[in-house]
Amino acid sequence: MSVGIEIDFLPVGEGEKCGDAIALRYGNLHGARNEQTVVVVDGGFKASGEALVAHIREYYGTDRVDIVISTHPDQDHVNGLKVVLEEMEVGTLLMHLPWNRSAGIDESKAMHFRSPKIDDKFEANFSAASDLEELARAKGIEIVEPFEGSRTSDGCLEIVGPSESYYEELLGEIADEEKSKAAHLAKHLRALLASAAEKLLPESLHVETLTDAGETSPQNNSSVITLFRVGEHVALLTADAGMPALERAADRLEALGVGAGTLDFVQVPHHGSRRNVGPTVLTRLLGPKGTDVHVGTAFVSASKDAPKHPAKKVANAFLRRGYPVHGTEGQTKRHNRNAPPRSGWSAATAYPMHDAVADDEG
């Protein structure tokens, strides 16, 4: 049997409102459906969920999704999954249940996440995740919390982050952060001031301006990080994880024998934000900078009208480590090995090396 994998990144959102909607399958892709495993990782917005359903029916030839992974409770990842659960037969839903592990978040859930002390975005995100759980239970879909070490019986899919202890640590930070709208307003103001002060910096194959100083939210760091090892092909999906989460995942990957430069495919975290990755963790995951050899492939979910996503310095950082980045930009992008050809599909073009990057972009 020829073991293969295909990973499809569907376009999500417009402008800077990006999201993730990923369908994939692995196994004998030239064989019968029972020789394959179909997985959905995040669903973008509602329209993205509808597109996922249509895509799976057309290209995978099935109405069944074996595993759905909700990486974290952001609307641009969760809302489309409701459509997938409603329209398709789903085997297992992997999602965290933060209200079962945090008294503060459980209290917020009891109030339907409505409180003058709770940020509007938090309310919408966690309410969407809670609705997804309720829908799954109403349809009798098994729910499993995905923590480091969880894996499928075939060994092809394994969760490499977060660990249960790290997730619970992050929940405390999430609960504290979401108590005050003022904290979010201050963060937004800092971002506006930073963007107003941006300047252009030169870069090249050997000159890198990306630093390890970026920070993302604890909610993003709670993202499920998933490893796929199908035959000799190795792929890593990172969702919106930031550097602390990725460093912990790198520890797990190294313990599994997945060292720098062994990934064939990797997702650029959080639509290519410079706050999520830095040189140290990228070197651990991908290898040292300064190579013009094609080591693997990187995909990023970023709309065509999102000038700051991916940040040029982030795309450059992946490229100089041998992983050219391909953005969705309004189109579905496909990565595959040992998969049937698709009529009318052609090779995608990666971003080039940018010789000038904005200092505070993305």
From the 3D coordinates, which CATH architecture would you assign? Answer: 4-Layer Sandwich
In percent, how much strand structure appears in the residues? Answer: 15-25%
Which CATH C-level class is it?
Alpha Beta
Physical arrangement of strands within the biggest beta sheet: 6-5-4-3-2-1-14
Radius of gyration from CA coordinates:
19 Å
Q: Report, as a whole number of angstroms, the end-to-end distance.
A: 44 Å
Low-confidence stretches: none
The biggest beta sheet is recorded as: 7 strands, mixed
Task: Give an account of the 3D structure.
- By secondary structure, the chain is α/β, with parallel strands linked by helices.
- It has a single domain, classed as Metallo-beta-lactamase, Chain A, CATH 3.60.15.
- The protein is 33% helix and 20% strand.
- It is built from ten helices and 15 strands.
- It has a seven-stranded mixed beta sheet.
- It is globular.
- The model has no long low-confidence stretch (mean pLDDT 91).
Task: Set down the secondary structure blueprint.
Elements: E1 4-9, E2 21-27, E3 36-43, H1 46-60, E4 64-69, H2 75-87, E5 89-94, H3 103-110, H4 120-138, E6 142-144, E7 157-161, H5 164-177, H6 181-196, E8 200-202, H7 218-221, E9 225-230, E10 233-237, H8 243-255, E11 265-267, H9 279-286, E12 297-300, H10 312-319, E13 325-327, E14 333-337, E15 356-358
Parallel strand pairs: 3-4, 4-5, 5-6, 10-11, 11-12, 12-13
Antiparallel strand pairs: 1-2, 1-14, 2-3, 7-9, 8-15, 9-10
Helix pairs in contact: 1-2, 2-4
